Amino acid sequence: MKNLFKFGFLGLALTVAFAACGGAETKTEETADSLANEIENTTDSIADSLNNVADSIKAEGDSIADSLKNVQ
Q1: Which of 23, 21, 25, 22 is nearest to 33 (CA)?
Q2: Assessment of whether the complete model's pTM goes beyond 0.70
Q3: Per-residue model confidence as pLDDT tens for the chain (72 residues)
Q4: d(Cα 45, Cα 57) in Å, to the nearest integer?
Q5: How many domains does the structure of the chain reveal?
Q6: Helices 2-20 and 22-71, axial angle in degrees (round to 10)
Q7: Residue 34 and residue 72: Cα distance in Å, rounded?
Q8: What's the domain range around 33?
Q9: Where is the signal peptide, in residue numbers (predicted)?
C-alpha cells in the first residue's frame, strides 16, 4: 500500500511538471527550428561561395592549360 501511494504521488508530480513546462517546450521548438533554418542558410551560402571559388580556379587552370598548348 505504501508503494502505491509513492507511485501515485510520483505520477502526480510528473504530470504537474510536464503541464508546467508545456508552454516553454513550444518556444524551445520554435527557437530550434529558427536556428536550424539559419544554419541551413549559412551552410548553403558557404557551399555556393566554395563552388564559385572552385569554378574560378578551374577556369584559371583551363586558361593556363590553353596557354601552354599554344606555346608548344
Answers
A1: 25
A2: no
A3: 567 777 777 887 877 777 666 655 556 777 888 888 889 989 989 998 999 999 999 999 999 988 888 776
A4: 19
A5: 1
A6: 60
A7: 57
A8: 3-70
A9: 1-19
